[in-house]
Every structure is written in structure tokens, then in C-alpha cells.
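Possible race condition, two jobs.
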Amino acid sequence: MDPDSAPMPPDQRHRRTHRPGGDHAFSRISWLLRSFPDAFSNVLTIRRGGDPMGKKARRIALTGAVVATLGAGFASAAPAHADDAHYYILIGGTCDGKASVYRPEWLRGGIARVVDYPAGAAGAPNCDQTPMDQSVAIGHDRGRQVVQDAYHENPNAEFTVVGYSQGAIVANMVLNDIADDQLGVDKTRFSAKLFADPMQPPGPAGTGISATLPPGTGLPSPFGGYVSFGAGRPDFNGVRSIRYCIQTDGICDFDPIQAAGGYFAQHWCYQWPRPTDQRSIMGDTIADGVYTNTSVRLGKQDCWGGPVHP
């Protein structure tokens, strides 16, 4: 797949739809604007040519500003033991520890296994208050267990690890363990779909916000836990994978000038349905069987019409 191509034309629109359990997008945006005014004012100052903060400090401020992801309802499917069974290890983003962002029909008959973890964002409204670095560590441990349990339930099945935003960080760590033969599973049966990955390594599709700073840089616990986790692997040593990043999404395509605006405009567009056909990026790609072992750059999406719920 051409890294500059997208599963759908970039001019197709997305819209928000209300689903039970969703948080208010604009309440989080308002909180971020109130909590991180310096970060956004610095972005505007940079655009005018000023530089009141050093590059590293500015990135740290923006790291703290872009932490919320949204979710909706999902229930795990019953176990199956057929050799053609396909398990999906689902890891939600910030404030979505139940992985409710993923809709059952997107799995196309696959079996859901949810990594239930805090998905924390200290200080964010309507969100678990576990500092993010601790949240990711808990998610890593639980993700390892979910992978092992699913594999031992049916070692002849196929398994896809799916992560979005903070969940993609957790997925990177779990995939590293699978790639390095640390979990006692057959890695040739595993694959990965990562959306808006903060650890996206530098490349034509963009560089993740976490990949722009050395690991550990930022505000560690107990000061929010908003730290860099470094860059992810370009590939996972035999585990088929693909990363999806919408252009200017400040989480996976970080730029000090565009990060904040791009985050608000694009970061939720992976999940919302297009008004033209009621399909979504995640719905089109999670179970499509396409893996390039690269990052795919998606064109900008217009998903700001409709209700304020994801």
C-alpha cells in the first residue's frame, strides 16, 4: 500500500453520532484550553515567529495538552474454538478503559477480548485519574495476560492486537513482548492495527508525539504521568502490522505549530461514520486483513458536523 494513500478518499466527511456512554468532546476541549493556556499561546507565538519556550519545553507542554480520547459501548463476544476463529485484542484510548470505541460489527464476526485498564488522564474530567505512565504500565501487564489467555484458549486461531491513542502505546509494549518471544505464543498468528499511535516512528506518515522526545521526558507521576514513551518499532519482527495516522493529528503526526489544532480537528475522526455511506476508518480497516508493516498517512478528514458525542 502506498504510504500516502488512504482506505478512503480524504475528502469524505465524518460526523459524530451519539452512542450511550460517550463523553462530551467539548467538555474535554474546554478543560484542555483552561488547563494548558501557555501551550496554545506558545503555538500562536511560534506562528508569529516568537519562541518564548525552548523546543523541548514546548513539546512537553503540548504533550500534556493532548491527552483525551473518547469511547462508546462494546461487549465481548463468547469464546469459539474453530481453527478459523479470529480474536481481536482491543485496547481503548484515554478515558476508554473498556475499549468501547470499537463497535462489534467492525470485527466482522471476530471474537472480542478487551484489555480492561485505567486509560487514565490525571486532571481530565469524566476520566480515571490514574497518571498516564502508571495507566500504561497497568495496561501493559493486563494486555500480556489477555494475549496469553486468548492464545491458550485457541492456539490455532488468528489474533489481532488493536490499539488507539493511549491504547496504541499499550499495544506497542505488548507487541514488543510478542515479537521478542516473551509470552509463549506463536507470533506468526498475530497481527496489529494501530490508530493514532503516539509512538509512531519517524517517517513519511508523520512522527508521533512520543517519538519526538527521549523516553521519560515530560511530567512523570505524581505530576500527571504525561511522559514520552519513545518511538515504537518500525516493525514487530514477524508480527504483521499497520499504523494509521490522519494528517495533522497531533498525536501521531506531531508538529509544534499544528499539533493542537490538528488534534482537536482530526483525532476522533478514526471512529466517526461518514455521512455519505455511514462507514468509518476503523470500521473499514480493523478486520480488512491488510498489513503493510508501515505507517499509512490518511488525508485530512472533516468530521466536525453533527452531535457533540462520539
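Job #2 (started ~2 s after job #1):
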Amino acid sequence: MNWGVFEGLLSGVNKYSTAFGRVWLSLVFIFRLLVYVVAAERVWSDDHKDFDCNTQQPGCANVCYDHFFPVSHIRLWALQLILVTCPSLLVIMHVAYREAKEQRHRAAAGDDCRCVFPNPGKKRGGLWWTYLLSLVFKAGVDVVFLYIFHRFYRNYTLPRLVKCELPPCPNVVDCFISRPTEKTIFTLFMVVTTCICVMLNLVEATYLIGKRCRECVLAGSGKSC
């Protein structure tokens, strides 16, 4: 993993982020991503192999595992992290487009010309909408995945023992989950950090909308809106 690339991406987003956005980035890349890469992936590495059932019937353990764990925690978290960071990449692309447009304008009209974007360090126009929609999208993705986890795993906890009677199991068999307490702790940690990220996104979106409304009221007209 090239952390220099991540540093460049983070600096691009941080330039146009509020304090809430910077805290969100820290939560995602320091807590959620690093916990996923360093710890959680190892805890679930032996998930299927150590799912033991008290029967020798061929295929029974596989069927029961698929029933109780239709999608692995690790794969869901990976998909969630990918989707939740994509809007930040769109913001970076929009910023790069603005900078390239400004450079082309200066090259054509000279360095003493009027800037295309009078306040390039502030969110204005299309960039403001891109940033706001990225916040809504990120919050929506996290909420959807919280619901998916709750549907698959009630109360976000993993039991020590589950009972399965699906064919080809000969009868009701007991199946034992490896490291249930450790997995529950990691799951609850990811759920809590996800909830905090959702809250930060909503607070930042509210702050941006309130700030823009305040600017429009102070301006006395809709020209700057």
C-alpha cells in the first residue's frame, strides 16, 4: 500500500473540508481502515475453517455456514469502505478540474488576468454542491450498511453456538463459531465508528447549508447563492 498516495488524496480533500470533515477522514482512514487491515482481517481469516458442527455428514457444515453467514463481515466492510470513500475522490477530481481550468485560463490570458474562481480556497458553485452531495451519499452508504449488518446479524453480535437443521444435515446439529467474543467486539467497534461518521456527515451538511443561507441573507440578494 502506497501511503504517499493516501497522503496526497487526504491533503486534496482537507483543503476544502471543514473541521467536521477532517475528523471524519481521521475516523475512516485511521480507525476503520487500519483496524480492518491490521486486526479484523486476521480475526476472520479462519472463519469458515473453524466453523465446527457436531456431525460428520458431508456438506452439512458448509450449508449451515452459508445460512448463518451469507456474506462475510470482512467483505461487507471492504465494500463499505470502498463506497464511502468514492465521494471524496469525486471531490478531489472536481478540485483538480478547477485547478486545471484556472491554469488554462492564466496561460491564455496572462498572469494578471482575473481569476476564474475568485475564491479558489472556498467551496463555491458546483464544488459546493459536489461536496454537499458527497456528504449525503457517504451518510446514506453507512446507514444502508448498518441496516444490512443488522439484518444479517441481529444486534450486531455473534453467538457462540447456532443450531442448524438444513439438508443435508441428518437432524438438528450444533455448530460452533470461532472467536465469537472477539468478533463481536470488532463488529461493535466498527458499528460505533460508522454511527459517529454518519453523525459527522449530517452535522457538516447542516453546517454548510446553514452557512450558505446566512451568507445569502447577509448579501441581501440571491446573486451570491
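The chain has a mean pLDDT of 79.
Logs attached separately.
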